[in-house]
Amino acid sequence: MINKVLCVDDDSISLTISKLLLKRTGFAENVLTAVDGHDALLFLEKLFEDHTNPEQEAPNLILLDINMPVMNGWEFLDAFIEQYGTKLHNTRVVILSSTIDPEDFARAKKYAIVTQFLSKPLSVETLLELKENDFVRKFFN
Fold first, then answer.
1. Sheet holding 92-97, edge to edge
2. For residues 58-64, average pLDDT
3. Could you count the other beta carbons within 10 Å of the beta carbon of residue 112?
4. Residue 11 has what pLDDT?
5. Residue 76 scores a pLDDT above 90
6. How far is CA 28 from the centre of its chain?
């Protein structure tokens, strides 16, 4: 089981579904949410302010939507890498989006921190697929 997952999505229904599914399937012990990239960065900033060992308290996995107001997923990824890329070695990102744009899939591959690209909505099937991911698998062995 993954200790902490941060779901970043502006759609409250998607956030609720993801949170319930991640907890009920035993995929994640703690599920945190943010409504956009800026909100997620504020969460990480507070983590570094409040904890002496923020890497231990950080989410292991971030489920990130791409298309959001205020700060979209791409902007979040760029800011995350700049601010936390050398500090949070045990955090990876899974893009969870409804996009079908091939450019989005290609762009995601340019980010080493992005470990997988999944289609919304999150489901039992996509969680089973995610468990086969090299980064995620180690939490379930």
1. 28-34, 2-8, 61-64, 92-97, 114-119
2. 97
3. 10
4. 94
5. yes
6. 12
Q: What is the pLDDT of residue 99?
A: 87
The top-level CATH class assigned to 2-137 is alpha beta
pLDDT at 47 (0 to 100): 94
- Residue 83 and residue 32: Cα distance in Å, rounded? 20
Domain boundaries, the chain: 2-137
Of 68, 66, 56, 65, the C-alpha closest to 30 is: 56
> Cα–Cα distances in Å, from 29 out to 3, 94, 109?
5, 17, 28
DSSP-based three-state secondary structure for 78: helix
Cα–Cα distance for residue pair 123/102, rounded to 1 Å = 22
pLDDT of residue 75: 98
Task: Count Cβ atoms below 10 Å from residue 125 Cβ, excluding itself.
Answer: 9
Average pLDDT of the chain to the nearest whole number: 95
Q: Residue 89: helix, strand or coil by DSSP?
A: coil
Cis check: omega of the bond before 59, within 30 degrees of 0: no
How is residue 86 annotated by DSSP? T
Return the closest-CA partner of residue 83 out of 116, 46, 108, 136. Answer: 46
| Residue tagged 């921190």 (tokens) | 113
